[in-house]
Give the backbone structure.
Amino acid sequence: MATRNQVDVDLSGQTGTGNFAGSTSAGFVTPVLGTPTSGIATNITITGGVRSFQIFTTGTAATYNKPSNVTSILVEVWGGGGGGAGCAQTGLASNSVVGGGGGAGGYARLYVASASSTYTYTVGGGGAGGTAGANPGSTGGTTSFSASSLQATGGVGGAIGGASSSVGDAAGGAGGVGSNGDVNANGAIGGAGLMLNGTTAILASGPGASSPIGGGGVALINASGGAAGNNATNYASGGGGAVAGTTTNRAGGNGSSGLIIVWEFS
């Protein structure tokens, strides 16, 4: 048996802890090096990437609060859609028997690398449809976020038709405008209403403009007895124009409200 001095010499310079493996056929486990293929991770802080997001569909001069674990944000804003135009009964001598569709709200997007803890925002409402009779639709509200004065205006309301006894049209409303973002875009224009050959042929209202996240109010064609314009659905889209009956005024469809989405990163 080796002396203690001999063992001390053989183990000199060795590192590590635990018992010395003195067997002639000791078993050793080789550690796995490189990228782990399995395991359970605990007490690890992950940085980078999307952590969460917040959606705002209403609010006037409201406050956005950034979560404590978020460092940067990407903000998207859409303005409210414009309302469709109303129209007057076809029996009137000077008439507007079809209404134009409302325009879609504008859009803007902004990345804020070092976000503040709070910001102020407002979500624009949808424009009201024109009341029954020869009345244009209302313009949608402006959506804003206080970072760099980011904003998107609402779509313009549809126009009433300038109709003669044989032909006439009603212009659709212009789209809203995005500004002060890294990306800015105008909303789509509302569709025009059309009358051909007075009350005996074609009466078609203007469709509301659709946004990427909402559907505009659909058009009406030769609606029996006339009909009110169709409302927009979801967000930032225009209301449809109305078609009048022979003795009844009709109202335009309402535009849909704007929207804000805040993407949060660490």
